[in-house]
Amino acid sequence: MIKYILKRLVMLIPVILVTSFLIFWAMSLTGGDPALQIAGDKATPEQVEQIREELGLNDPFLVRYAKYMAGMVTGDMGQSYVTKRDVFKTFMERLPNTLMLGGAAVLIAVLVSLPLGIYTAIHQNTWKDTAGMIFALFGTSMPNFWLGLMLIIIFSLTLGWLPSGGKTGFASLILPAVTVGFGLAALITRTTRSSMLDVLRQDYMTTARAKGCSEKRVIYTHGLKNALIPIITAIGLQMSLVITGSVLAETVFSWPGIGRLVYDSISKRDTPMVTGSIILCSVLMCIINLVVDLIYAFFDPRIKAQYSKKG
Amino acid sequence: MNEDLVLQIKDLVVHYETEDADVHAVNGIDIEIAKKRTLGLVGETGAGKTTTALSILNLVPNPPGVIKQGEIWLDGENVLEMKPHELEHMRGNDVAMIFQDPMTALNPVMTVGDQIGESIMLHQGLDKKAAFEKAKEMLKMVGIAESRAYDYPHQFSGGMKQRVVIAIALACNPKLLIADEPTTALDVTIQAQVLELMKQLIREKEMSMLLITHDLGVVAEVCEDVAVVYAGRIVEKGTADDVFNHMRHPYTEGLFDSLPNLKQRGEELVPIQGLMPDPSDLPPGCAFAPRCPYATEACTKAVPALQSVEGSATHFVACTAYADPDFKLRRNRDGK
Fold it and tell me: Which of A60, A161, A182, A299 lies 20 to 30 angstroms, CA to CA, from A212?
């Protein structure tokens, strides 16, 4: 198992190489001269040229990339053009906010969707099922920036219960977390329902009933644990959306997370900040995927056996 | 209810009601099983055997399954009138079931020890740890090393899994064991082992058994009594000797004719012509009539009732042809 984890961590290296190259390349193609932006409107061509020389912008693309990667090995991901601050540090300062928002969103989603998914599965083809599925359809089809705006209108502007944005303690977390969590809940509800429906038909459920298990025990002890694998997969896949795709929610609620950081950096052509953030996000995603895979092993002994075999 | 009977099913009717069709799976089955006796329920796939078995535990999946009428008496109590907690108490404790496919009958994410222990825990009030210890004993009883209680189903072969399923079923010493084609999914060599094990355990624990199978060899091996089912009705029942050596129903004869015979190698098998009728569209009268070589017009008029064969107390047949006192099956002619 430990061997497996190490192997997966080593596999991060090629992932970082490829993503960083692609991002670096894409950023070099976007055009626009950061030197001009840094120097400001009144700078002379000589000053601009000097800044370019300082930043190494005159080097060929591959040289710049090599220099960048050499810096990254030592933990130096460059400085923001705009704020002059260290990229890695800035990212790490923002990361907890995004993790907090993502964590809260996932928590809300799981708390709503697991019970709802199981409930609709048990009452398949009744009005209860239909009502649950309408809710889920609503959730998946509603754009979350719009939901965010509606929530602000209702709970901040009209009722005045919750702050409309910023990070000012627990209350300010609720609206963005609900916004991100709602779409997620809809998706997990559907996955839970279909996974549970599949499990309910399995022979071992009849075995459990024939043993004298109560219906509750059959569903929660025998059913849920088997149904969890696809559910965890769905949550794991959605984590990428939660972490990197919360740009919209973070923008709507001015939440100081990574999504907003990347958004701001792109609009200011802050190349080192964008490149660094995206590389770090891809590393983060790899780690989350690894954690999801490890959670599988915890729930399914067959997968655990596979990991140890492949070592 | 007769004191000596462990199970008595009276006029059981089970339908599967879907939007497209009303499937008549079981159409009035009567079964009795006495103490320490083993009854073989024989019939083709789709004859209603498994539905009958699930009805005994009141586990017919609903929807679409509906038990339309009938009584199922276990120890003076009608299963069909039991409340949920009474059912839970009965299942696994008084009546246990072995399923056809051991590959899918075990929960893949629970250790076999926990799965065996669960029913002990539920019915004997032991805590999880004590139940697990007892589960190990059960494993030993079915010929599996105790140390394997910590393993998961995917670590066992098919035959071993079926042994685990048997251990689960026998964990609480049920009075009646229902075995639904327990050897069908196993290799022939393993089949014999598993059957032998079941026979031995049933004798030791003085249980009764309802063995569901389409394999007449298995019936001959294990059962004292036999009931032949066709399209949800019993067409012939009696002791194994009655049915194997003095069969009366044309369908029973057809079943035996389609068995290969070692003594007459090279002789072609005689399959029963045609297919079993669609249970959502049963023919009027005797359901076997369209395939029966002896059928007359009278057969399509009314469903024949089970009647005693020549006044026998054990042997019954449901066939219109015996209205003619001289009627004999082909096998029973030539002075047999």
Answer: A299
